[in-house]
Every structure is written in structure tokens, then in C-alpha cells.
Amino acid sequence: MRSQTDDAVSRALRAGPTAREAEAAAAAAASDRLLARIAGEGLADVTYAPVESPFGTLHAAVTPRGLVRLAFPEETEPAMVEELARRISPRVVRSPEPLGQLEHELDEYFSGRRRSFSLKLDWRLIGPFATRVLKHTAAIPYGSFSSYGEIAAEAGSPRGARAAGNALGANPIPIVIPCHRVLHAGGGLGGYGGGLERKRFLLELEGALER
Amino acid sequence: MSAPPPPFQAFLDDNREAVWRFLVSSVGPTDAEDCFQETFVSALRAYPRLRADSNLRAWVLTIAHRKAVDCHRGRARRALPVQDIEVLDTRAGDGAGPVDAELWGAVRELPPRQRSAVVLRFVGDLPHREIASAIGCSEDAARRSLHEGLKKLRAEVAA
Q1: CA distance B121 to A137
Q2: Which CATH superfamily is domain B8-158 in?
Q3: Catalytic entry in A179, A183, A203, A205
Q4: Distance between CA atoms of residues A189 and A126, nearest Å
Q5: For B31-54, how does the pLDDT look when each residue is reduced to its tens digit (9 = 90+)?
């Protein structure tokens, strides 16, 4: 049998020491301070943040080695984060600050004031053949373009145009690694992981295609 | 090889309130901040070694329980700060009554296992099995700790 005191004690214990909403807010604030500390002490393996662009909000991820992923808006943030946790490390956290250098360089690039990126890149999501393909792709100058066959030949696989196309289509760091600069030898645009509209937009921005 | 745990950010988002409530209840709002940071930094360090099928809530509360115990030990060595209890007077829970500030003061004076058992049961709403795995004892021992803790609290409040 329960006395009145018992009920009061159980009720008070269930109510907790402070109001629910106040605690939710306090927990969120404590979690923000935690993320600032994790960033300050470099405790995470991967950090992500949104980045604005003319295409909408991109999702970017960096590791201590450099930029490892840039995702177009239709790839949702949870999907990107899930993939990073699986392929790199589950120690993935949101960045408490915007990714300053990336934002700055993308902003300059999209306003036509930057022709190449000086960001360090982390290539670990890119396999050996794709790395050769994308390194040669990264060397195509701003404002010009190459073809799938040429890039495949440069990567040591003269008959590998299709494989090169697959590697380009799976580029985890589009825009910064300029896979949009690889077209069909016949002059067709070819494909683009982010959609052909965007490929055309980037080539026009760079003056490789007429507007 | 077993699958890795979910992204740490998702784990943090899912568990931060439970950990915060547990810590405020067991060490008070002033020390909860440090214990919260220490709990999740320890969790982050150990995180990649976890298995996906681990009970993440019980696991992180185990760490929080240990941090709370450390905090109480450190506090026992220092002069005892009393302001925590005053801060609690500003709460506005449903059960708000004259009993509360005294009660939470008494909760924090319980022996560590009893304190964690009471907090995990009432604040964390965990079943006995999970309380047991969070504080690292058998289910029976958890049940006993909870019972003993409640008995003391009731005696305290009735006094």
C-alpha cells in the first residue's frame, strides 16, 4: 500500500528537476558547446556543413586531410552523413562553424573571380583507377574541356572511355574536381552526376560554352 | 565484421536530452555541463569500436553514470557547494511543490548506485534491465538499489 508521501516522491521524481522544455534547450546548448570543443580539439574524423551555391544548398564534408565530399542539394544531408559514417568513420559530426575557405572559394568561383581551387582534397573515397582519371581531369584548365577517350588514355586505359565516364559520374567532389570539363568527343555534353543543366551552367560560367 | 554504429551526430542528437536530464538529476545543473562534455568526449573516443547492435542509450548512460560518480568524488574532496540546490528552486515541473528542491538535494546525496538507479528509472524511464547494464550490475541488484534509494528518499521527505 502506498502512502501519500510515496506518491508525492514518485511524481516529483518523474517530473525531473527542471521543466522539460528548459532541459531540451539546455541539452541543445550543451551539445553545441560540445561540437565547438570537438572541432577545437580535432576529435572527429569527418565534419560536415551546408554551403550555399547557385544550385541551392550543397552539403560539404571535410577530414583533417581536406575536402572529401561535396553533395548536390538533392542528395540529402542524412544520406551523405550515413555514407561518410559507413565509408570513412562513424565519428562524423556537424561543424559548429561554416566551412570558411570552401564557402569563400566557391563564392569567388561562382561569381567568375576564381579559376582554380586551392583547397586541399582528401581522395580516400576515390578508387585507384578513378583517382588517375580525376587527377587528369583536375589538370584540364578552366575554360577548356577534354573528352572521355582522352582522359581514359591519359589514365593509362586507351579503350576505357566508358570506365572513365563511370569514374567521372561518381566523382565525390564535383565542381572542385571539374568533371564537368569532360565531354563526348563528338561535341555532345555527355553525362553529369548532378544533371546536364548544371554541367551546361558550369561550362558557360567558365566560358567553355557559349551562353 | 559487424556494421559500424550510426553517425556520431545522430547518436548525439538522439541521446543528448537523456544524458542531460540524467546528469542534472544526479550532479545538479552546475556540474552537469562538465560531465556532459566529458561523457560525450569519452563516447566519441570509443565510438568506432562499438557495434551497430549495441544499446547506445544504455552505453552512453553507463559513461554518464561513471562521470557523475567521478564528479561526486571530486566534490567530496572540495568544499561542498550548496548553490546547486538553490538553482533547482527555479524549476517548473509538473510535480513542482515544496518537496522538490529538498528531494533533488537528497537524490544527489544517495550512494552512487542508488542515485543512478533512481534517476535512470524516473528521469530516464529505463526498464530494470537497462538500468542494470547502465550501472554495470545484475538486474536484481539494480532492482534492490532502486528500492533502497526510494526508501531513503521517502524517509527523507517524510522527516
Answers
A1: 59
A2: PhyR, sigma-like (SL) domain (1.20.140.160)
A3: A179
A4: 23
A5: 999 999 999 999 999 998 887 777
* Contact partners, residue B79, CB within 8 Å, separation at least 6: none
**Alpha carbons B106 and B101: distance in angstroms, whole number:** 9
What are the two backbone dihedrals, phi and then psi, of residue A157, each rounded to the nearest 5 degrees? -140, 75
Helix (H, G, I), strand (E, B) or coil at A62: strand
pLDDT tens-digit readout, A93-125: 999 999 999 999 999 999 999 999 999 999 999
- The reply to whether residue A15 touches residue B94, judged by beta carbons under 8 angstroms, is yes
Contacts of A132 (CB under 8 A, 6+ apart): A154, A155, A156
Q: Which of B145, B107, B99 is nearest to B24 (CA)?
A: B107
Q: How far is A43 from chain B (nearest CA, A)?
A: 8
Domain formed by A46-110, architecture: 2-Layer Sandwich (3.30)
How far lies A208's CA from each of A56, A112, A146, B6, B151, in Å?
Answer: 23, 13, 11, 43, 79
For chain B, which residues make up each domain, given as ranges?
8-158
Q: Is the pTM of this model over 0.90?
A: no
Q: DSSP string covering A109-178, please?
A: HHTT--SS----B--TTS-HHHHHHHHHHHTSPTT--EEHHHHHHHTT-TT-HHHHHHHHHT-SSTTTS-
Are B103 and A43 in contact (CB < 8 Å)? no
- Annotated catalytic, A142? no
User: So what CATH class is A128-205?
Assistant: mainly alpha
